[in-house]
Design brief:
Elements: H1 3-12, E1 18-24, E2 30-36, H2 40-44, E3 49-51, H3 68-71, E4 77-82, E5 88-90, E6 97-105, H4 116-129, E7 133-145, H5 172-177, H6 179-191, E8 196-201, E9 207-212, H7 218-238, E10 242-244, E11 258-265, H8 282-302, H9 308-311, E12 324-326, E13 333-335, E14 345-347, H10 356-372, H11 397-406, H12 408-413, H13 416-434, H14 439-445
Parallel strand pairs: 1-6, 12-13
Antiparallel strand pairs: 1-2, 3-4, 4-6, 5-6, 7-9, 7-10, 7-11, 8-9, 11-14, 13-14
Helix pairs in contact: 4-10, 6-7, 8-10, 8-11, 11-13
Length: 449
């Protein structure tokens, strides 16, 4: 956006008096600062400074104990470099505003490798050197909830006034009852140039899924997912609801997943996963093998929170076994049917609570390892993967943290600094969770043992 175009934009939006400059932290949370709208040119000139440690805070926004970004560097600033996304209108607050995304650079202008967006870019550049372009589409699930309660309960229908109490997968009535909310979500997506596609009512009461159209730019796909999550929460508040992307907000209802579809194009625009057969090409098989080979070690990026592992349980419509199959939704890796020219891989492990940049970095990085090493997958699973004799994902948060921290494979995907910061963040969060005694523990033990 040139200086002249920027001035034109300011002239045509006199109603705006502020802009948010935002960066994504390791948990996928947008953080930043509010500036007067007159400072917009400063953002596009890359003159906004933010502490590098802003990406390395825990889920409560607290610095990580012992973080080198805080204590060894004096909590130094980095440069907020404009990502090229432009100015994103924010329409759901008390008054309209705008948001401009940045990613972090060091003082000399070089990339700050622990910015999660930079981590994904590192993998994308590896594909580019091979003459390959990943094409990515995402599917995000979320629940609308009643915001008047500390614990989630389904919302009341705006049409009937009755609280939802049944799981209504693909329910047209549920879509129609919440049509005002969904229409506003699509309108906000249009304003932010997020390619929202189909909307469906999912398995849980008040649960919805909105799919994104595929784009030949993984950074853009991850951006869209991050902005979409914030947008949905904002529009929900505008309509009197809460919205949650928590992986498992209800113990006995379906969790929220973040499914990723991807294929690879060569320099001529051909899909290298397509060999004219339903099986798919050798490159597809290599990519699948790489995803299976790295899945256990990468699980922390797919299931980054204490609650994440409540979703990853057998029979819960979320994968637990490290397997793959054709048109099989019980597997972690699914090869959808359809025209051969659209042959692609669906990765079904991540929860909607995960950081989209790290999810895509782990998926594409794992596929790249499989392609470069020409790995071969085991046999595809037919039938119920939950009951198959396969290796399983880490069963708990502790195991996932240890696997990610100690994995040489993750060292091929992520910088050592990011791995240290990310595992430090997760260990700090784990320690705080373990320090809290739940009501259920008191109910079970206080006057019993």
């Amino acid at each position: 956006m040139t200086e002249i175009n920027l001035q034109n934009w300011l002239d045509t939006h006199p109603e705006l008096d502020s802009v948010r400059v935002v960066v994504c932290d390791l948990n996928g949370v947008l953080r930043g600062k509010r500036l007067p709208i007159e400072k917009l040119p400063k953002i596009f000139a890359n003159e906004v400074r933010l502490p590098l440690s802003v990406v390395d805070v825990d889920i409560w926004g607290e610095d990580i104990a012992g973080s080198k970004l805080v204590f060894e560097t004096g909590d130094a600033d980095g440069i907020g470099m404009h990502t090229g996304r432009g100015i994103l209108p924010v329409t759901w607050g008390e008054k309209p505003s705008a948001m401009v995304p940045v990613w972090l650079a060091l003082e000399d202008g070089s990339s700050f490798c622990s910015d999660p967006r930079r981590a994904l870019d590192f993998i994308v550049q590896k594909f580019s050197k091979l003459g390959l372009t990943p094409v990515v589409a995402t599917e995000l699930e979320f629940y609308l909830v009643d915001p008047a309660n500390n614990r989630p309960i389904p919302p009341k229908s705006p049409v009937t006034g009755k609280r939802l109490n049944a799981d209504g997968v693909l329910s047209l009535d549920e879509l129609e009852h919440f049509d005002g909310f969904i229409s506003d979500v699509f309108e906000a997506c249009k304003l932010q140039n997020i390619p929202a596609d189909a909307a469906i009512s999912e398995n849980g009461a008040g649960q919805f899924e909105i799919n994104m159209m595929h784009v030949a730019d993984p950074l853009r796909a991850a951006d869209d997912a991050v902005f979409f999550k914030r947008l949905v929460r904002g529009i929900a508040r505008k309509h009197g609801f809460g919205a949650t992307f928590m992986a498992k907000p209800y113990a006995k209802r379906a969790g929220n997943g973040f499914h990723v579809h991807f294929s690879l194009l060569d320099k001529k625009g051909n899909n290298v996963f397509d060999d004219g057969t339903n099986k798919g090409s050798d490159v597809l098989q290599n990519a699948v093998a790489g995803l299976l080979h790295t899945m256990f070690d990468a699980t922390l990026t797919f299931a980054p929170h204490q609650n994440s592992f409540r979703r990853l349980s057998p029979g819960s419509h979320a994968p637990t076994a490290i397997g793959w199959g054709y048109e099989n939704r019980t597997t972690a890796i699914r090869i959808p049917g359809g025209p051969n020219i659209a042959r692609r891989i669906e990765h079904r492990v991540a929860g909607a609570d995960a950081n989209p940049y790290l999810v895509l970095a782990s998926i594409l990085g794992g596929a790249l390892i499989g392609i470069q090493q020409q790995l071969k997958p085991n046999q595809p699973v037919s039938g119920d993967a939950y009951s198959s004799d396969l290796a399983h994902l880490p069963a708990d948060w502790v195991s996932a943290i240890e696997a990610f921290e100690n994995s040489p494979l993750m060292g091929e995907i992520y910088s050592s600094q990011l791995r240290t910061l990310y595992t430090g963040c997760k260990k700090q969060e784990l320690k705080k969770f373990l320090a809290h005694i739940t009501d259920f523990e008191y109910d079970s033990y206080l006057e019993t043992v």
